[in-house]
Amino acid sequence: MDRIYIKRLEFFAKHGVFQEENVLGQKFLISAVLHTDIREAGKTDDLTKSIHYGDVSHMMKEYLESHTFALLERAVETLAEKMLLEIPGLQEVELEMEKPWAPIGLHLETVSVAVRRKWHRAYIALGSNMGQREGYMQMAVDEIGAIRGCEVEKVSSFVRTAPYGGVEQEDFLNGCMQIRTLFTPRELLEALQAIEQKAGRERKIHWGPRTLDLDIIFYDREVIEEEDLQIPHVEMAKRDFVLLPLREIAPWLRHPITGKSVGEMAEELTQHYVM
C-alpha cells in the first residue's frame, strides 16, 4: 500500500488531565501516515485520484482544536476513527500526537502517543431456525450495517439446511456476509452477541434451536485461539451450511492455516457426503 506523510503539524488545543490544561491550552504536534492507493493519481496527475493532504491537515487541526480530551490516547483514537470513516480511499492510518513540555515535574522535550488503525475484512455466518427465520437474518444484516465502524459489502443467498449436531429441531436458514470493520475481533464478537440477544437468543442447549446465530468465520488472515473466540471458526470445514453460502460470495478466500480455498473445502465436503 502506498503512503502519504504529514509530519509534525502544529496546533493549539486544550487536552490534559489537569483542569488548567483544559482552560489554558498549549501547543501540540500531530503526524500522520495515510495508507492508500496512489497508482492512478501518479499515472494521471489528477488530485481527485489521491487523498488531498492539505484537506486532511485542516481536518486534523480543526478536530483536535474543537474537542477537549483528558488523554492523548483518546484524542488519537477518535481522530483515527473519524479519518477512516470520512476520507475516501483511506485504508489505514498511523497517527502520532506529541505534547511538548508535559507537566510532570521533570524536564523533558516531549511525550507522544502513536496508534495504527485500519479497515479489516471479516466474514460472518448467519443462522436461524426459530420464529420468523428470514426476518431475524435480515435484522442481523441491517443491525451490523448500522454499527458505526462496520460496513456490509456482500450478503449471500439464504439457504435452507438440516440441523447440525444431533439435536432434533427445525431446519435452519443459513447465510454468510462479508463486511469491513474498524472493530477488533473481540469488539466484533461483543457486537454480534448483542445483536443475538436483541433477537432473543438463549444459549440453553449446545447446537440447539436459536432465533439467531452469528459466528465470525474469518477476520483478515488472523489466527486467534482463545477460550471463547476461535478464528478461523474451528468447525467451518465440516459445515456445508457455512461453506456453501460463503462460496457464493468468496470462493477464492483461503484458510490461513490449511491454505485451502473456500471453494476447495466446499468441494471436499460435497465429495465426502456423496461417498
Topology overview:
Layout: E1 2-13, H1 19-24, E2 26-36, H2 39-44, H3 53-66, H4 72-86, E3 92-100, E4 110-118, E5 120-128, H5 133-146, E6 150-155, E7 159-161, E8 172-181, H6 185-198, E9 213-219, E10 224-226, E11 229-231, H7 240-249, H8 262-274
Antiparallel strand pairs: 1-2, 2-3, 3-4, 5-8, 5-9, 6-8, 7-8, 10-11
Structure characterization notes:
With 275 residues, the chain is α+β, with helices and mostly antiparallel strands. It has eight helices and eleven strands. The chain folds into two domains: 117 residues, GTP cyclohydrolase I, C-terminal domain/NADPH-dependent 7-cyano-7-deazaguanine reductase, N-terminal domain (GTP Cyclohydrolase I, domain 2); 155 residues, 7,8-Dihydro-6-hydroxymethylpterin-pyrophosphokinase HPPK (Alpha-Beta Plaits), CATH 3.30.70.560. Helix 7 crosses helix 8. The longest helix has 15 residues. The protein is elongated and about 70 Å long. The mean pLDDT is 91.
Features:
single chain; 275 residues; alpha+beta; GTP Cyclohydrolase I, domain 2; Alpha-Beta Plaits; 2 domains; 5-stranded antiparallel β-sheet; 4-stranded antiparallel β-sheet
**What is the CATH topology assignment of the largest domain?**
Alpha-Beta Plaits
Rg (CA only)? 23 Å
CATH domain class name of the largest domain: Alpha Beta
Q: What proportion of the residues form beta strands (DSSP E)?
A: 25-35%
Give the CA-based shape: elongated
Distance between the termini: 45 Å
Strand and helix order: EHEHHHEEEHEEEHEEEHH
Category from helices, strands and their pairing:
alpha+beta
Q: Can you give the helix content as a percent range?
A: 25-40%
Which blocks of ≥5 consecutive residues have pLDDT under 50? Answer: none
Biggest sheet, in brief? 5 strands, antiparallel
Number of domain modules? 2
Helix run count: 8
CATH superfamily heading of the largest domain: 7,8-Dihydro-6-hydroxymethylpterin-pyrophosphokinase HPPK
